[in-house]
Amino acid sequence: VPLYGQNISRTLVSFFLLIPRPIMDPLLQVLKERGRSSFGELAQLTGKTEKEVAAVMQKYERERVILGYQAILDLDKTGHGGVRAVIEVRITPEREGGFDRIAARVARYPEVVSCQLMSGGYDLLIVVEGPDLKQVASFVSEKLSTIQGVISTATHFQLKTYKEAGVLFLEDEKSERLAVSP
Amino acid sequence: VKTASGFLASHVQGIPRSGIRDFFELVQKRGDVISLGIGEPDVSAPWAVREAAIFALENGRTGYTSNLGSLKLRREISKYIEKICGSSYDAESEILVTVGVSEAIDLALRAVINPGETVLYHQPCYVSYAPSITLAHGKGRGIPTRAEMGFRLEAEAVAQAASEGAKVLLLNFPTNPTGAVMAGKDLDALAKVCVEKNLLVISDEIYAELSYEGPHESIVTRPGMRERTILLHGLSKAFAMTGFRIGYACAPAPLIEAMMKIHQYAILCAATPSQEAAVEALRGAEATTSEARAKYQIRRDFLRGKLEEAGLRTMNPAGAFYLFVDVRSTGMSSRDFALRLLEEEKVAVVPGEAFGAGGEGFVRCSYATGLDQIEVAAVRIARFVKKLKGSQGASSLVAAR
Q1: A 36-65 residues with CB < 8 A to B
Q2: What's the average model confidence in pLDDT over B348-352?
Q3: pTM score, two decimals?
Q4: Which end of chain A is more exposed for a tag (fewer CB within 10 A), N or C?
Q5: What is the b/e burial string over B324-344, where b = at least 16 CB atoms within 10 angstroms of the residue's CB?
């Protein structure tokens, strides 16, 4: 029976991957790739005027399409890497609220950097960051597992990052393109 | 006793050294240059494509394929070309997989040209056309295209050139180096002339996916054209697969059969792992090509905007990844402009003269380079032009006095 369920969700996933995505606003595309740039630069890149860019960005921020701007860091290189764990959490859905109320409670902890409801063998996938192993472990045992409605947790500590937010952490291979070609 | 060069065939000896080659060596000597002189994408092939090549090797697919190319790949090409160019071809008999479009051009010319027959081609154009015609023992006749006409090929010009006798018309739209694209009505008129003058068309549509002002249109879709067109395309540009060397020709069976005769003796077949990779590429074509198009369009608009701000005009860059920039206002030849820009600002562009008649007065700027590099290059070009125009103004003042 579980195999059957897995097949269904796999089929669903591959089905969604096949749907061609509608074309994104070029402004969002540029912001997604380059982060927050000056209005002037963004205007040039998208062929809009600075005023238009400012207005559209304001709209996106108001509608919470744009939620924030962050740098993608390889913290291991700074010596302030800390510890990161991915935790699978099983919770009991509630009448009326479903998973949302407990998920929101979990997500509010500052230690939790991301929290998503998943299909499959568990309900929430959360990522927790802390200064060291001990503190992350104590967050799990003292705070997370003791929330009413949390049935079980499985904690996986992250060892090394190869790619994050679409950015490869590997050293770039040197380009071997010829300097001039026809 | 003959010296080594005394053994050379005269038609080969007569081919001049490529202007690009000269310039490449100059650029290569200097380090730290930002190059807008590169005619290939700045990214590697999509990972799924590279992985497919690895998978093919792991599974021992290291033998020959059919001379025409693997049937699996030809079937994918057949589906794809119908979508992109609007004409359907039989995978079994009307498609030939080649080692890049360059080989396909060579095959097409050699298959149809008797010694001394005339091939028309538009200029400025890709550097290989004239030499390929010569190597096929044909006679090339360049038809100039004009900046004021957006470097489109005018039907009347073709009619006039063909009236002196010609067998083949070689087309390349979107064009390297000008980026020009033919509008639908231009193609209508051109097709009519081709039928009237009984011309065979070899249409190199390697930049088909990189059309920014609307979907690509192929001349093959015009009435009477399918039976007289050899359509050439490949995966180098839109799929960033230059080093895989996969191109293909689509044409009525007798033409493909003739091209295959040459291909089977000269090449045998395109590299098998590359063909496997090409199958994967075509299956994921929609995502790859629309992403590439969107990326290049942003860069084009950016670079074009910056250059026009600096007072340099560009005409009709509706396709490919090149701007053909008018530098006549600086009073310099394209070569001097490119050399001084390299010397003083360390930016490499290709002088238009390298692309044949009509290229003088222009330089080709490729935007197949990261936006960060393009930004810096644009600032430097603007500074360079300002300096030139400043000194130009000063000297004319002196002259006036």
Answers
A1: 44-47
A2: 95
A3: 0.83
A4: N
A5: bbbbeebebbbbebbeebbee
